[in-house]
Amino acid sequence: MPLAAMLRSLIDNFPKDRRLEIHIFQSGIQPDQRRRICEGWPDFCSAQWVDVDGAEFASLPLWGRMPVSTYFKLGMADLLPERAGKAIWLDCDMIVLDDIASLWDMDLDDAPLGAVQDTVVPFVSSPCGIERYRELGIDSSAEYFNAGLMLVDVGAWRREPVRQKAAAYLRQYHREVTFWDQEALNAVFAGRWKSIDTRWNHNASDPRINPPASPAIVHFAGGLKPWSYRTRNALRSLYFDYLDRTSFAGWRPEPSVTGAAVELYEESGLRALMYPAENLGMRIVRNLSRR
Description:
Layout: H1 2-12, E1 20-26, H2 31-38, E2 45-51, H3 76-79, E3 86-90, E4 94-96, H4 101-104, E5 113-117, E6 145-153, H5 154-159, H6 162-172, H7 180-188, E7 194-195, E8 202-203, E9 217-219, H8 234-243, H9 257-267, H10 270-289
Parallel strand pairs: 1-2, 5-7, 8-9
Antiparallel strand pairs: 3-6, 4-9, 5-6
Helix pairs in contact: 1-8, 6-7
């Protein structure tokens, strides 16, 4: 359902006079679900389902809630067709609110990717950044990007090669890794990526950050997903607006005591004060889950 809602938002805000070619990296989505996701799509867009063998990434570190599919983006240069020289990566926990073709038209100025600086981990030296940045020769002031949205020079990734470099980093430093594929990409591209406007990846889960006047993409990063708890949060309601334009229309999470507590926690403003403690708790879980 999150994938269906994200893709519907992408399509509904895309210019009708251009072509949209969507490649969905997946493992385990059955044919009937694929049909439901693509139901009612207009003629200007197409879907290519790319089956990825999760076993290829099984040796890479994981902890907590994250499935192995978080690593699929590392294989982008190999999984996309040879003719693809450029791509936009979108995580499925996003809602697109603007014409993404304008992002596509952006000049990368010879950088291998464009992305938005992360709000939770703004620098490689920040907590949960790259623990061994000194050992890797990375300056402490190097900015750290969120990998949920990336404008990618696929040709440059093939020449690097990114997948092999990222996997080597993850295997060598697996006991220190916090944010999986994102950390590996920041280690590979430290100081070499182009920063783009924050409206293209607004973290709706960070209560310390006010949304831009016109966010282009809302990102439900972290564990409080809109499909997990039933709350009246305005940004999370965008998810259901677009879900209701898919074959999953009308679905809502069941009301729960946990959902009511989350809503109270957020609306009271307490979460903004407690957010550093949330991050500390996350780091503790990471440390306990190391393998």
